[in-house]
């Protein structure tokens, strides 16, 4: 016989004064009360449990709660950097605008203003200088050799030495109409070939007003200077024929007008290849004959 269900189980309806069951958790189904017992349920409850064949495997099973139908499905986990680059052992490349060092802080405002003032001052000074240069237009002076005379020429063939006096006259022309040219530390020299000079003389400084032509005369004394065999060929024949003489002048030139003045520049005047012809019976004198010879000026 089946045992009576009314004697072994509580009544079908619970006490109305008992507390309500707890609310279900979010995303999980509500915990429904167990169904009322029946005769079949009492029978199976009193029956012996079946042998547990798969108890070992059930021990490791874990029941996972089922998600609610309205809850969103969880996203799959993002693959790690090691999984994405499992074929290489290099770290991922940096972004295109990656900077390993932090940017330098901007300079202070006062320093930037000071640099701006310095740059503006230089620009204004350069513009003013350019405008003045356009208004004044400085031009290089022109020099020409007016005369050259050799006197008391004495040559010694034993030691190939020469003694003579060179008298030269240069014409300096200032083509500027608004600028005065001043020459400081003029230095004149003479030589018989493009080599070291055989005589050097220091001249006094002088100045040229605008549109002025000045004659610069000077004498150079040569006393026992060595002369090469090629240059001494006219002297070995007793002073017959012609030979070439070089006269040069170097000075520091400054252009000025009132309070405006240029910086000092080295000026070089080169009168090369001046032919000098011997005259007289003993060949003791020679002179440059011809019109004034234009000289090269480098400034």
Overview of the molecule:
- Residues 51-64, 84-101 have a biased composition (Basic residues).
- Residues 1-104 are annotated as: Disordered.
- The chain crosses the membrane at residues 114-136.
- Keywords: Membrane, Transmembrane, Transmembrane helix.
- It is found in: Membrane.
- The protein is of the alpha+beta class and 299 residues long.
- Among the domains are: 108-137; 142-298.
- The chain has six helices and twelve strands.
- It has helices spanning 5-8, 39-46, 55-59, 81-84, 109-136, 233-236; strands at 142-156, 161-174, 180-191, 199-202, 206-208, 212-226, 242-257, 260-261, 265-279, 285-287, 293-294, 296-298.
- Strands 1, 2, 3, 4, 5, 6, 7, 8, 9, 10, 11 and 12 form a twelve-stranded antiparallel beta sheet that branches.
- A hairpin with a 2-residue loop joins strand 7 (242-257) and strand 8.
- The chain is elongated, with a radius of gyration of 59 Å.
* SS strand fraction: 25-35%
Major sheet details: 12 strands, antiparallel
What is the number of E strands? 12
> What is the count of DSSP helices, taking H or I runs of 4+ residues?
6
Return residue spans where pLDDT drops below 50 for at least 5 consecutive residues. 1-10
What form results from the Cα inertia axes?
elongated
Structural class: alpha+beta
User: What is the distance, rounded to the nearest whole angstrom, between the alpha carbons of the first and last residues?
Assistant: 141 Å
